Amino acid sequence: VLLHRLANFQRVWSLPPNENTGKEVTALAWRPDGKILAFGLSDTKRIILCDVEKPESLHSFSVDSSITYMHWMEVTEESSVLTSFYNAEDESNLLLPKLPALPKNYSTTAKIFSEEKSDEIMKLLGDVRLNALVLGGSSGFIEIYAYGMFKIATVTGVAGSCRGLCLSSDLKSLSVITEIQDSSDGEAEMTYFQASKLDTSLLSSYLPEVTRMARKFTHISTLLQYIRLSLTCMCEAWEEILMQMDSRLTKFVQEKNTTTSVQDEFMQLLLWGKASLELQALLMNQLTVKGLKKLGQSIESSYSSIQKLVISHLQSGSEALLYHLSELKGMALWKQKYESLGLDASGIEEAITAVGSFILKANELLQVIDSSMKNFKAFFRWLYVAMLRMSEDHVLPELNKMTQKDITFVADFLTEHFNEAPELYNRKGKYFNVERVGQYLKDEDDDLVSPPNTEGNQWFNFLKSSTHLKESPLLFPYYPEKSLHFVKRQMEGVIDQCLQKPADVIGKSVHQAVCMSLYKTSQSEDSTPQLFKLPFLWNDKTSNIHYVLFTILENSVSKIYILRRHTDTSRSVSNGILALEFGNFLNNSISESSDSRCYSCLDAHFYDDETVTVVLKESVEQEGKERILAQLPLSSVYTDEDQDREFIWDCTKRLDEQSGEIPTHTVFLENQWRVLENMKAQYVAVNGIRKVSCVLSSNLRHVRVFEMDVEDDGEVEEEEEEEIT
């Protein structure tokens, strides 16, 4: 993906294909405020939301089909309820502490939340006004994502591969153009296009509720991402060096030829101050005084980093998640407003419980870190002195002091952590598990190697003996055998499950209002690269009319057809469809030919609600004849006399089979056109707000940018960018 500034074609950034995101970009869409670009990748079936300033993925998600078209629209509907919601300060900002930024020194995955100002997350959430990213894919796949992040509808029942989509700005209807492969004719494979109009009135009638629910959902999605990244940072803070103790001791067991256990060897050193020759060799030759010091420092720095991350990031993220889920549960209990959208209180209750279990597990990890830090400190301090004595070095008097309490502490540590476990060797390839923190951060389904010891814990005993509390919904379930990663995955699964239901319910409420077969194309007729631009859909926000532009080739001339329909299914716009031909307006070009149909349309786009921009070529194409870029005002197309020539659509036939009866208009463009010199133009992309058009050549190598509304009578200013590669 390459992003260029329009004014001088300076490259802002490029995002090369990579293994994680994918390699084949098939669709792009800008968020209506222009701050985020979404693109779909077909090989990995992922959607990436990218910041306009720098090529960084702010959010990504997977879909079930490869995406062929994307459309990102904004709701323009106004109502007093919505206005008050838009203007109200988000309560969570007042009630919840600000999420601390993730530390910068970890890998790039955490970039989005590592900016000091957490406005990255606000940039991702964007404006409160609802906007929706509509995705269309192969085999009838259509999904609608609120704010580009949260799925609010999965639409079913549309046949074919999506070539165009348009959701009206009042959310009342969704127009879709699909391409259906049809090889029954025995000719070259044919495809025909059909336009379906889907009624999405559930979304529009519950607009305030949908907006509020979607806003909550996006908060929850970003918090899950924050927790995921905090955990990634914790895994990075845990280093492999911490495993050294386990592997050295395992090697020692394998090589020694005495019958004493490792635990006894260390106990003897503790009690008598003397070590066997083998233990001496392990400590002095393999571990070394220097190595022991380094190991002690690593454990301390690593554990304190993990501890900080748990306290400041994991816990604050989980508490915010709990807050938003509880709010969502309150919404779900307001049944008259939210039940018909599929919000389900019992599912949200389960999600709250899962977050509770995750918080419990994070607390357990904190206790394990705390006790491990104390134990290791005392153990290393004692072992350091013992090793200095072995090497007959001078021991500083302050290191030499060891109280009875310290000795008991080390003895307890040896008893608990240094017992050999042969069954562990088969599982993990080691006999010991001295280091207890790493097991919580492993992303695997195995149970913990050394789960915490809950014997003698009064609360556990009390729970076991109480019949009422065992099943109480107020107590979060506790998984003593499982790792933090496992509990996090389980929590994500439950939350996804509970947030999935509205998408299914809203999707099922969408039904087809109109379905029309448009036309067939044969594969052979067009050898130019297929950059499917036509058919093109446009939504006129002020009058809520959907327009469809497409061309049908007849007698080697491509006429352009304009189909228009009102988004409100009950109202019909009188003149549903018109065909346009372009008359001869370059007087000198074909004076000898009297045929008025001189031009074929290659591509067409709505420039704004009143104008269509077209690329034309002469139908009798001769060498040296240039192509033309023209502006076509709709006012010259829809005139009063068309009201008489109403076209009666026969739904049993395709449109191209009844094209003879469609009212046809011959357009003579006055002055809003220019010749595209030295360029075999094929496609056009326009932006009426910025008053520019971009024309792309048929070999997809040359781009020209035109300013469309230049007042000066002189030469039109033109910027040109040619790519030679």
UniProtKB/TrEMBL annotation:
Task: Please list the GO biological process terms of this entry.
Answer: anaphase-promoting complex-dependent catabolic process; cell division; protein K11-linked ubiquitination
Q: Which Gene3D superfamilies match?
A: YVTN repeat-like/Quinoprotein amine dehydrogenase
Indicate the transmembrane segments per the record.
Answer: none
Annotated InterPro entries: APC4, Apc4-like_WD40_dom, APC4_C, APC4_long_dom, WD40/YVTN_repeat-like_dom_sf, WD40_repeat_dom_sf
Residue intervals of the Anaphase-promoting complex subunit 4 C-terminal half WD40 domain: 537-707
Task: Give start and end of each Anaphase-promoting complex subunit 4 long domain.
Answer: 197-393
Keywords, A to Z, come to: Cell cycle, Cell division, Mitosis, Ubl conjugation pathway
Q: Which domain of life is it from?
A: Eukaryota
PANTHER family reported in the protein's UniProt record: ANAPHASE PROMOTING COMPLEX SUBUNIT 4 APC4 (PTHR13260), ANAPHASE-PROMOTING COMPLEX SUBUNIT 4 (PTHR13260:SF0)
Output this protein's name: Anaphase-promoting complex subunit 4
Q: What is the protein's species of origin?
A: Antrostomus carolinensis
